[in-house]
Amino acid sequence: MGLKQLIENCKINDTQAQSEIYKLFSSKLFSICLKYSRNYAEAEDNLQDAFLTIFNKIEQFKHKGSFEGWLKRITVNTVLQRYRHEKVFEIIPDDFAEDEEIEIDEDSVNIDYLLQIIQELPDRYRLVFNLYVLDGYSHKDIASMLDINIGTSKSNLARARQILKKTIENYKTTRSLQSL
Fold it and tell me: Where in this chain does the record put each RNA polymerase sigma factor 70 region 4 type domain (predicted)?
């Protein structure tokens, strides 16, 4: 059975089709949930919430554009919805000056460590950092998605970068001291 037929069967609440869609896309969507969640358990909860939303709204998918892209948008929005209600953002004026980019020497910091420290950022910084740096959204888009102003998005990105830079510098210092 092709993807189009699976989608159509999901629209009539076919649990076998829903199970197949879950099997096909759960690992990709879980990685998105993990990126935006505080921890593994919360990512699992967010994945389940995302699939509930997906199956409740699947009749809205009209086979125009990528189904996977549609799933990813719903997943990101589902995770972000949790944070919108928690009011994790502090409001910053729109004229906030953005800090410079941080260069990361990929030979001295492995990707697993980098992903770990990103996940450990406070919610407001982690969400903006991931949306801007990892997913390529503009500050205008982020402000709209998170119901904050553009200055808050810029401020939270700058603060995330500062925290990451300091954490990476401490990591490098510790590693170089251990190698002595």
Answer: 112-162
